[in-house]
């Protein structure tokens, strides 16, 4: 799909006509992290995967707006493009904020929403995020080898078990070279807590089944945030995932898929 924020790359798995499930990734990742869970869900659902503008295989360019505000609008437009009026949505990390903004601010409706270690509650943003955000122009000038080492270390820290080298390579590759290096620091520089502050007070309005999954060993966003979020969403269920860090899809894909299959309705 071509959008004012850039081309959006997406794909589908599963049988057309099955209940639709949309998987939303976070930062600094792409739809690639959903590959194992998507294959499981595709046995029962039509699964939609997409890369946010500025991520993965979607468009990256200087001056691009990749803020959470932009991504929320893109997601609402993408659902319209697909003709999905009330899909099931599963969203990780920044994707959580994107799906919540699309619902609360842009009128996107979901049949059910599963949030996996989402960015949703203040305060968020690590010291690394704040350092890069304040000095993104400097970081963009890093020699390629230093930039590559920085990104590999940062992505690796999302997993509590450690990532397979091939998986780490796949997650890091979009951020290398031109335009990847600039895009990596751009998305951090535009990560502003005000985009969740705008909606945090409205979580009590959410009127749909909600599941909140959380890796028990998440060092990026502590599991206490999961308990706090559940307390703010009427009727929300909480599912801790043992042995998983922030990147639950890589650390415990079978456990996450089982939790989602238990939660998501099977009938259209």
TrEMBL record:
It comes from Allokutzneria oryzae. Pfam families: Abhydrolase_1 (PF00561). Keywords: Hydrolase. The keyword Hydrolase applies. InterPro entries: AB_hydrolase_1, AB_hydrolase_fold, Carboxylesterase_BioH, Epox_hydrolase-like. This is Alpha/beta fold hydrolase. One of its GO terms (molecular function) is hydrolase activity. Residues 19-253 form the AB hydrolase-1 domain.
């Amino acid at each position: 799909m071509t959008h004012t924020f850039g081309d959006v790359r997406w794909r589908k798995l599963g049988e057309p006509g099955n209940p639709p499930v949309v998987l939303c990734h976070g930062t600094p990742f792409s739809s690639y992290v959903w590959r194992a869970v998507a294959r499981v869900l595709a046995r029962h659902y039509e699964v939609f995967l997409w890369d946010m503008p500025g991520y993965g295989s979607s468009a990256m360019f200087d001056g691009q707006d990749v803020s959470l505000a932009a991504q929320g609008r893109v997601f609402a437009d993408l659902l319209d493009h697909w003709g999905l009026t009330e899909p099931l949505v599963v969203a990780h990390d920044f994707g959580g904020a994107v799906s919540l903004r699309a619902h609360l601010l842009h009128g996107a409706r979901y049949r059910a929403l599963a949030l996996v270690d989402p960015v949703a509650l203040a305060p968020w943003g690590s010291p690394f995020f704040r350092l890069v955000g304040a000095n993104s122009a400097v970081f963009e000038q890093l020699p390629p080898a230093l930039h590559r080492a920085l990104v590999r270390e940062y992505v690796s820290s999302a997993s509590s078990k450690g990532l397979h080298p091939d998986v780490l390579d796949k997650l890091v590759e979009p951020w290398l070279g031109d335009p990847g290096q600039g895009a990596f620091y751009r998305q951090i520089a535009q990560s502003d807590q005000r985009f969740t502050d705008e909606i945090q007070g409205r979580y009590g309005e959410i009127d749909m089944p909600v599941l909140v999954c959380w890796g028990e060993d998440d060092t990026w966003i502590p599991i206490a945030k999961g308990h706090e979020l559940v307390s703010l969403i009427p009727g929300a269920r909480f599912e801790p995932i043992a042995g998983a860090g922030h990147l639950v899809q890589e650390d415990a894909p079978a456990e996450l898929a089982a939790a989602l299959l238990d939660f998501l309705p099977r009938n259209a």
